[in-house]
């Protein structure tokens, strides 16, 4: 797949290209998959996505495969332990946000769950590949914040919507466009 036209950020062979070719823009299902993507997008803020992808196996181990009940039960001691884990991004606020968001995810089950909630903000229009924020991601951000989520700004939620295939995020010339 070396000669295929890709989105510009996919770069050369490696983790970014593999992610682009196999995962980015592909719909996911299940609470843990949504919580993982939401958490990783929050951790990515201010960092490169490549850093997050390289650390993803360690994130999955540290955050109990993103099972909301397990992460929601994390104590202050668990969070302190994660601050010592060199395999993940050691940012106290982002670690606390992951726990807060897991708790908010558990609470959201009463209203159909995280997956259903996020999908309810899917755009009914064509989203340009160059957009980094949208009316839908802004609305999702505000709604999640009202539900107790943190580190869910409009740009981060737009990246989430791209990553989980709520709309086709690929450049018009990209071989993945429309797939």
TrEMBL record:
It comes from the Bacteria. This is DNA-3-methyladenine glycosylase I. It comes from Nocardioides eburneus. The lineage of its organism: Bacteria, Bacillati, Actinomycetota, Actinomycetes, Propionibacteriales.
């Amino acid at each position: 797949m070396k000669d295929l036209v890709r989105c510009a950020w996919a770069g050369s062979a490696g983790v970014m290209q593999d992610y682009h070719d196999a995962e980015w823009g592909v719909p996911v299902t299940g609470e843990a998959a949504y919580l993982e993507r939401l958490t990783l997008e929050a951790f990515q803020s201010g960092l490169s996505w490549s850093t997050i992808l390289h650390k993803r196996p360690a994130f999955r181990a540290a955050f109990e495969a993103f099972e909301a009940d397990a992460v929601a039960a994390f104590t202050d001691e668990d969070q302190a332990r994660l601050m010592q884990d060199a395999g993940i991004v050691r940012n106290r606020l982002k670690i606390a946000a992951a726990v807060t968001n897991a708790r908010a995810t558990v609470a959201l089950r009463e209203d159909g769950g995280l997956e259903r909630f996020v999908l309810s903000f899917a755009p009914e229009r064509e989203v340009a590949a160059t957009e980094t924020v949208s009316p839908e991601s802004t609305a999702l951000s505000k709604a999640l914040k009202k539900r107790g989520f943190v580190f869910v700004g409009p740009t981060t939620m737009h990246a989430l919507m791209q990553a989980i295939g709520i709309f086709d995020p690929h450049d018009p010339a990209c071989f993945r466009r429309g797939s």
